């Protein structure tokens, strides 16, 4: 008999036979998470539930997503003005989570609050919880979270070669003075990503003013990955890029998520991008989360008037 593992829970579902293709379909599924599990092949049911043929029900064990970032009742004031209020948000391990909002909705403030870098949140009055795997994110000396900003020039120094910039994550971990051996090993690691990132080795000797915006954004993502994070925060990562380069960056993010199980938290005003990339989404308006859930659910069956109006204004049905 099939047994559950530590990260799994037992659920009982009722199935009915659909037709001649050998599939049975779920009935009366109330939990959003299970709606994508809409059909299961008969041999699976027979192998996992001996009572299936008699009762039409099957007990199956399913892996549930694990929340790695949890934000509860977050309130942020800047110079006495409330920017965020009562924000609740979770990001699951191995998923791409989206935060959508118009300009002035509080997205950037939320982004900076999650990073918890002192110079970025100077003057912020923060209440509530921002936890990474149950621990206050501000307690980490080496952050498990790395950012990629909209403007790569804010992340890559114009006074260094790109090779020097890409070595910095290792210097943060091991010290500024690296041996020739460690530099060589890390350079080999950097180059191992280049084909996937559509980069050539010659960029290592160049500076930021010698590369295109698309190249710099790819290098920003690579620099974040080299720090070995568990979650990457993306702040409008494709806004300033042309359509072809946008598609390349989106493909890269999806590839990294699927092949290396890197989690992403994507902050964007682009509903089409979030619908295309994200598993779950949180809609932010005037500092509050007004709707959240699986992206496929939120964008096809929105509950709030705000979400409906936002989707209609972006012609999201055509994306």
TrEMBL record:
It comes from the Bacteria. Keywords: ATP-binding, Nucleotide-binding, Transport. Residues 69-311 form the ABC transporter domain. GO terms for biological process: transmembrane transport. InterPro entries: AAA+_ATPase (IPR003593), ABC_transp_ATP-bind (IPR050319), ABC_transporter-like_ATP-bd (IPR003439), ABC_transporter-like_CS (IPR017871), P-loop_NTPase (IPR027417). GO terms for molecular function: ATP binding; ATP hydrolysis activity. CDD domains: ABC_NikE_OppD_transporters. SUPFAM superfamilies: P-loop containing nucleoside triphosphate hydrolases. This is ABC transporter ATP-binding protein. It comes from Leptospira idonii.
């Amino acid at each position: 008999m099939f047994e559950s593992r530590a990260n799994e829970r037992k659920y009982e579902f009722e199935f009915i036979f659909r037709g001649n293709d050998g599939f049975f379909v779920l009935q009366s599924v109330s939990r959003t998470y299970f709606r994508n599990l809409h059909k299961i092949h008969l041999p699976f049911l027979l192998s996992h539930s001996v009572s299936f043929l008699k009762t039409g029900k099957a007990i199956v064990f399913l892996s549930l997503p694990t929340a790695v970032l949890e934000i509860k009742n977050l309130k942020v004031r800047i110079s006495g003005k409330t920017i965020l209020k009562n924000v609740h948000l979770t990001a699951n391990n191995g998923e791409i989570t989206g935060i959508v909002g118009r300009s002035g909705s509080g997205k950037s403030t939320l982004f900076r609050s999650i990073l918890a870098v002192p110079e970025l949140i100077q003057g912020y009055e923060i209440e509530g919880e921002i936890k990474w795997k149950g621990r206050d994110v501000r307690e980490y000396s080496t952050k498990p979270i790395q950012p990629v900003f909209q403007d790569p020039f804010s992340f890559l120094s114009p006074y260094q070669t790109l090779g020097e910039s890409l070595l910095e994550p290792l210097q943060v971990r091991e010290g500024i003075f690296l041996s020739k051996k460690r530099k060589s090993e890390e350079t080999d690691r950097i180059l191992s990503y280049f084909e996937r990132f559509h980069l050539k080795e010659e960029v290592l000797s160049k500076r930021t003013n010698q590369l295109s915006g698309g190249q710099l954004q790819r290098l920003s993502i690579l620099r974040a990955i080299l720090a070995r994070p568990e979650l990457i925060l993306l702040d409008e990562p494709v806004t300033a890029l042309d359509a072809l380069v946008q598609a390349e960056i989106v493909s890269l993010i999806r590839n990294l998520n699927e092949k290396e199980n890197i989690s992403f938290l994507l902050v964007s005003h682009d509903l089409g991008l979030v619908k295309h990339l994200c598993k779950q989404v949180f809609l932010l308006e005037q500092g509050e989360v007004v709707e959240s859930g699986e992206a496929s659910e939120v964008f096809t069956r929105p509950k709030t008037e705000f979400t409906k109006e936002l989707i209609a204004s972006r012609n999201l049905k055509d994306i």
